[in-house]
Structures are given as structure tokens and as C-alpha cells.
From TrEMBL:
It is a multi-pass membrane protein. Keywords: Cell outer membrane, Disulfide bond, Ion transport, Membrane, Porin, Signal, Transmembrane, Transmembrane beta strand, Transport. Its main location: membrane. PANTHER family: LIPOPROTEIN YIAD-RELATED, STATOR ELEMENT OF FLAGELLAR MOTOR COMPLEX. Residues 208-336 form the OmpA-like domain. NCBIfam families: PRK10808.1 (NF008071). It comes from Tolumonas auensis (strain DSM 9187 / NBRC 110442 / TA 4). This is OmpA domain protein transmembrane region-containing protein. Residues 1-24 form the signal peptide. Belongs to the outer membrane OOP (TC 1.B.6) superfamily. OmpA family.
Amino acid sequence: MKKAVVLSVIAGFVASAMSVSASANDAEGAFLGAGFGGNNYSELGDVGTADKSSTPAAHVFGGYTFNEYIGAEAGYNWLGNGRVDGERFKAHGANISLLPRYPLTEDLSLLGELGAMRWDATNEGTDVSDFGVSPIFGIGLAYRVSDPVDLQVRYRHIDGVGDAKTGESDSESLGLDVVYYPTRSSTPAPVVTPAPEPAPAPAPQPVEETKNFTLTSDVLFDFNKSTLKPAGVTALSQLYNQIQTLEMDDKNIVVYGYTDRIGSDGYNLKLSQDRAKTVSDFLTTKGLSATRITAVGRGEADPVSPASCNAIKAKKDLIVCLAPDRRVNIEVKGTKKVTVK
């Protein structure tokens, strides 16, 4: 009965996570971790006289969190030494698992696990060893201590460790994990300070207003490319949210693409146009009207890099120095009613 309940909870958790993962955009990247706790060979009494069924256990693991709702991991697990009829019963193995998760607060998430373990078990009483594969079900909580570090409490059920040769027992473990995310960051997006509210007036008049945003192309695109990187998708999603909060009517947007001076004029003009088009297409898919957004390529015009770049000969160093020239400027124009005094 316990196995059926755990399986139904995890299956429902996986379905819920998969249904929302398409809209999630908080990819957190690769992780490494280690954990320590206790394991109980819950059916060791069926093998013989269980002198010791509870034992320390540990595991190490690594994986990838695709977004805040789903991830995957692989790991090595030491399930510890039990004792049957006065002799050791021990097991260890490698697992691969799907890790659904559901945020409860900004820092606390509910965890699930659904996977399989390839175990090796030894019963020293019968001097027999064997191996096999068994399903894993798990549930727990993860707390975000800092950007790179989580603490996790996890319960895991391995359905059958050992076989007819060695004797078989389920494994029930509870442990504390430390998880390290080397690339995870929660740096807040830049926020546009809203214009002050106009003083009340009997006859407010529409006045044109302009807001400008600049994004470095090295965040949005790989060098010499016009396809968005994952970091570019995140940055443009944040920009879209800022544009939506602007208190303007009849917004019209012009996206200007710029390159550095490396390469021919014609190539750079086309690359800047392609990049501007990629940004405008993305903002359109997010909900901005295609009739109110224009993409303009400016090539290597209006450089902003320092004059010291002119003395650099090595191409790799020059690319770094000219990074400020590779940018996308977004100009937003609209009308806002203000009091005319």
C-alpha cells in the first residue's frame, strides 16, 4: 500500500511539473551534491534473523535543473551494512532519476524523484553477490541558502534490493544533501524608474515620451551570430516586462542593431539587421504588436568603444575591447497625458 501511495504522489507531481515546464523560464543549470543519512533495509527479516536493519548511508550525485520545475540527476549510492544471521548484508549502486519540483516560496521547493538504480548486493552469510535494477521513488524539500547552495531533505524508497540468491529487501532512506549550483544567479533585472505622477490639472494634454534601453549583444548572441542564447531569452523577457509597465499609450518601438568594426561594412550591416530582426520578432511573440515595432540595422555606425582599441592588433584582444560596440538599442515612443501649465 505504501509503495502505491508513493508512486501515485510522484506520478501526479511529474505530470504537474511537465504541464507547466513549457512556460517556465528559470533554467538553473548544472549541479553537484553529496548527502548523508540513514537507510533501513525494511524487509531484512524476510531474509533471516535481522540483527541490524538500520545503517548509515551516503550518496554523491550530479545533474541538471532545466528550469524551476524539472531536472535530472545521476549518482552513486552507498546503502550501508545490515546484518542477517550475524553476517553482513550490504548493497550499493548507481542511479539515474527524473527530479520534478514545485516552488512553495521564493526559496523553498517541494521535491520528487522517479528513477532506477542498478544495485550490487552481497550476503556474506551465504557468500553470494548479485546485481539487478530496481525503481526509486522519492520526495523531499529543498531550501535555497544562497545563489549557489541548496540544502535538501530527501526520503527515498528503493523497491527491492537483492534477489532470490542474496535475499531481497526494500530500502527506505532519509538524508540531508548539500547541492552546489556553480552558475546559478538571481541578479535582479534593471528596473526603469517610473516618471513622477503629474500634478492634477483640469485639462491634461498628450505629450510624446521616449524611453531607451541598451542590451549588449554578447549577452544576447554568440559572436558573429544572430540566434538568441538562453541568457538572451531571459534578458529580453525581462525587457518585455519593463516595456509593458511603461505608462504610455500608442507605444511605437524601434530596435537598432549595432556591430563592431571587425569585418566588411556589408557583412556587419546585414548582421546588425538580422540581430535587430531577431529581437523584434521575439518581442512580437511575447505580445507586442508587429505593426508597432521596426528593426533597423546600423552596422558599425556610432561606435562607443574607447579610442585605445585602435592600438590593439591581436584579434582576440580586439574583440574584447570592442564589446561595447556590439549592442542592441531599443527605443520606445508613446504618448502620456500631462498637465499643461
